[in-house]
Amino acid sequence: MNTESNEINILNKLSLMFEEFFIFIALLLLVAFFGFTAENFFSTGTLTAILTQLPALTVVTIGMTLVLITGGIDLSVGSVVALSSAVIGIAFTVFELPLLVSGLLGIAAGGCAGLINGVLGAYFRLPIFIVTLGMLEAGRGMAYLVTNSQTVYIGPSIQGLALPISGIGVSASFLTSLALVVLAQLALTRTVFGRYLIAIGTNETAAKISGIRTEPYLTWVLVISGLLAGLGGLMNAAYLGASDPNAAIGLELSAIAAAVIGGTSLMGGRGSIIGAFIGVLIISVLQNGLAQLGVSEPFKRLITGLVIILAVLIDRWRSR
Amino acid sequence: MTARISVEGLCKSFAAPVLQDVRLEIADGSIHGLVGENGAGKSTLINIICGLLAADAGVIKLEGHDYTPESRKESINQGVALASQELSLIDTLSVAENILLTALPRKTITIDRDGVEKKARELMGMVALDSATLHRRVADLSLAQKQLVELAKALSMADEQTRLLILDEPTSALTSPQADELHKIIREKAENGLSVIYVSHRLDDVLEVCDVVSVLRDGKIQLTAPASTLDNDALIKAMSGEELQSRGEQQIREYGDVRLDVFQLTTAELPNAISLQCHEGEVLGIVGLSGSGRSELLHGIFGLGVERQGRVTLLAKEKNDIYIDSASTAVKHGVALIAEDRKTQGIFASKSISLNTTVAGLGKFGSGLSRVVPTREMQVSEELIDRLKVKCEGPLQLIDRLSGGNQQKVLIARWLETKADVWLLDEPTRGVDVGSKAAIHEHLRQLRDQGAAIVIASSELEELTTLCDRILVLSNRKAVKTFKRGEWNNELLLEAAFSQHKGERLVS
After folding, report:
1. CB of B196 within 8 Å of any CB in chain A?
2. Can you tell me the ipTM of this complex?
């Protein structure tokens, strides 16, 4: 009996790993392809470029994936990133608050935006697509208002977060995003919270009948997405050394694309944080690799779009 | 003379046989009533005639020619019109557009607006629908008005080419004068040679308007006779099946104290206050026709439902009374609900049996970031699968791969895991094979013997008469009567279930 269940366990783990294994192979193939075709792909320059851009998209994608798993969507993340970084810039330069406090204020601003999204969606039962679409506009507007539509220079003190720590070779931002990927994956697969998100996304009525209060979970998941977008704003400001109210336009689409490439279903009920992270890597490698090959911007976008559609096609075919 | 439509040896099975060797013959210009309990096979028969389902065996002839429509479109082309019980209207279009949807008058390429208006007015006049509503959106109409639109729509198909008009519960939302008006129109049409199949729960209506009536029970035609030779009692007798009565009589059991007390419960869907009690170790049945409020009552007790009022209390010795104000309170204190529609309200599709068995019990570990240990989850799930003898490959198999009966067992397992001792079950054995059905009944008996309070709503009388200690009858969203074991027979139960439908029409 015991060995039997162990066998089932191993099989289970393999099949679970297999899902992410598939796109991991795709990532390796992509890296190999650019390694052969682009001359300087395996240089520290490329690595640095990828690693500095990565953290903001990664943390935002974590939030997006959780929201998508419940069957929702959060279109406001790009604007919330800009709003948070605007708040941080003004708090630090105009109000001369310590960097830590400014950072927390930015993250809190993101959390507030998420709370509004969540309450309107879960308790007022408004369609979350529309609510977050509204927040996409409103958040961007607030970012312009806060900064008076100017880029606010913060200076080198904040850039420390985005620069490689000596001896480790990667930045604090990157380490943080990596830690959050692991934490979120554990929360999704090993906690009651995660189980409930999957249950709600699969069948909300059945979840309610199973005694799950769906509203708090649907709210929390958007608050988490908002907080992570706020953190993304901090990372973005750190990478630029400034708060740019025009930052992260269209980031929500990259985050959705990364989640979907990673096997998350837009219908809800299915998704993986690790998979989404690999999706982020695929998008970054693709962008940087194509740039190194000298592909023009229009072609870069065309190819990225095709890759997203291809990923969904493969996923559909695989789940049959 | 050949009949307008004749049906011979028609059979259809889903999980279980639904229609068996059905024979029906409808003459030109005849209005043919079709009655039966829920689940007797009426809808299936109509769906087959309308081309929405394919029969397993049997021959249908339309005016002597073989007739096997493969789609609704094909049956319309051959002259079969249907006014459905579930309204087939498009909320966002106007009344006129809905009525003529399948036959909009056209100019060469555009819609002929004047033509639409003229023809729609004509049809609305026929069903006595206020012509002021012509251009209003269907969404803004009352239920009765919608039903009239549905009828007008069916009549729009009932032109020269229509040979058979099927009316499924045409009067369920109508007032008496409206229904009388409708019956007049139907009779006129029949005199001009249209044949009609008239399906209804309102037996008085059926007897009034029909020439011939057939009774379906358990997928078989029990009786076909001229309406003039029949009365209410004869129909109810044929629907209930007298030979079943003897089986219902088993010994009267003892049960314990009140466990579940429902006092003056109302919801938006259940406007008339309902009170009931269920005792420890008792099985309480709920009987009612479809739309009688059975499911709404169970959902209301469980803490679901809009504008829920009244008091639902869980009583237990040496414990405080618990008032159920929401589904999560109910679950936390040992109430289980197995809802009617397994697909949309029960299972988590494309998820493992493991998740499906453990999801309701997770609340025990706390709601937040409490850890779920996959190996322990798997163990729990395996034990439950063993206990209920779910036929599957293991806890990781997707629930979609299981038969209906085994899915239902998984749902029961889900609530065993929460240690529920108040069970609310809505059609627990619908679409379940005979073997699983017996197993599920056996489990319910075991739970009852362990002291659980069980409430079962079912459209299958036999299921209730064998399992239950008491049966509450709902009719038209009202609680009509409670029978104790020994007091009931199928005829009495059905009579009570039909009682409020009858009353409504007698007011006229």
Report:
1. no
2. 0.82
